[in-house]
């Protein structure tokens, strides 16, 4: 998914220099509403990057959307757009998303499927609800920052069905990425992390195993979920810090949530629009390449064009007047 804001916030810049041990271990994070593609577009709730916290492990971007009634509407329509330095993760509770990318991949993502795209030095893709889409769209789009050692890895796309599940009384737990409780996902990751989808029936009181060396957070997608005794509404995230071996959850109504975690990311990052780099110049170079290739279609592009999408590619926003400068990976109060 693209960040389609015309003026991406400059605060989406983070530094690994902050001492993780000094961070709060229970921190509520509230989303902001963002229109996805024009004035009539669907809206998403963006909780990462956040004013108070910009990453959880390598997870650096999280949008939740729906449940939205898109009967008679276009639903999600995100034109071809570029990425560098990250992986995109699409997870659906209801509906469908049609993925196309510059590698020639085309996949119809449905609930239970994992769509994982690795950008490396550059890839373009589009995402849209198919013409014969279901009446409701509900899901999440996440980004994982690539560590320095993987930034030049070749762009790639993976589509996984039948993901492994962790047997936990009172919850349906699907392991999307990494490992949880000894259950490992087949999805390719480049740093120690975990991502799991949680489906909780009414009255559920599950307890999940956690890796104490990871920091964790829970993103609630539907209905309120009580996380470690705190009620978290849909669209919000509760950051949990490090050192926990277990996570207590409760739901009075059927609910869906995502557990995200990983080793605190040890590298400085600069995030702007759809790019994750290390310096201001990384961002400028990627934007320049995208705009030139979007207009001229050279023989050997950095961002291979997306075929099959009916419409123009997304133009890049204007860069801010000042250089993008590192800021702490979390906000010290």
Automatic annotation (TrEMBL):
Disordered as annotated region, ranges: 314-333
Biased composition (Basic residues): 324-333
A Pfam family per the record: Pirin
Domain of life: Bacteria
Gene3D superfamilies recorded: Jelly Rolls (2.60.120.10)
InterPro entries linked: Pirin (IPR012093), Pirin_C_dom (IPR008778), Pirin_N_dom (IPR003829), RmlC-like_jellyroll (IPR014710), RmlC_Cupin_sf (IPR011051)
Residue ranges annotated for the Pirin N-terminal domain, each copy included: 42-144
Record domain Pirin C-terminal: where: 198-294
Membership in a protein family: Belongs to the pirin family.
Protein name, UniProt field: Redox-sensitive bicupin YhaK (Pirin superfamily)
């Amino acid at each position: 998914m693209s960040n389609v804001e015309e003026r991406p916030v400059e605060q989406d810049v983070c530094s690994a220099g902050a001492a993780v041990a000094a961070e709060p271990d229970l921190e509520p994070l509230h989303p902001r509403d963002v229109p996805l593609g024009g004035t009539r577009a669907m809206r998403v709730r963006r909780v990462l990057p956040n004013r108070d916290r910009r990453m959880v492990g390598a997870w650096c971007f999280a949008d939740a959307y729906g449940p939205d009634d898109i009967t008679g509407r276009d639903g999600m329509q995100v034109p071809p757009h570029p990425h560098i330095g990250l992986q995109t993760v699409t997870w659906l509770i209801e509906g469908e998303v049609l993925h196309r990318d510059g590698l020639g991949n085309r996949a119809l993502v449905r609930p239970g499927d994992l769509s994982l795209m690795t950008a490396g030095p550059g890839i373009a893709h589009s995402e849209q609800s198919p013409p014969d889409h279901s009446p409701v769209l509900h899901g999440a789009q996440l980004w994982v920052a690539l560590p320095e050692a993987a930034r030049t890895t070749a762009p790639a796309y993976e589509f996984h069905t039948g993901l492994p599940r962790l047997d936990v009384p009172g919850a349906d737990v699907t392991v999307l990425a990494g490992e949880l409780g000894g259950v490992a996902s087949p999805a390719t990751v480049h740093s120690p992390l975990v991502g799991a989808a949680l489906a909780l029936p009414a009255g559920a009181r599950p307890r999940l195993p956690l890796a104490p060396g990871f920091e964790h957070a829970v993103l609630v997608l539907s209905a309120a979920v009580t996380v470690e005794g705190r009620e978290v509404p849909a669209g919000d995230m509760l950051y949990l810090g490090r050192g926990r071996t277990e996570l207590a959850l409760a739901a009075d109504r059927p609910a869906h949530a995502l557990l995200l975690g990983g080793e605190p990311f040890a590298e400085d990052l600069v995030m702007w629009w759809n790019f994750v780099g290390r310096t201001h110049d990384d961002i400028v170079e990627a934007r320049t390449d995208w705009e030139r290739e979007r207009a001229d279609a050279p023989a050997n592009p950095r961002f291979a064009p997306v075929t099959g999408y009916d419409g123009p590619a997304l133009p890049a926003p204007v860069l801010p007047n000042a250089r993008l400068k590192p800021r702490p990976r979390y906000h010290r109060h």
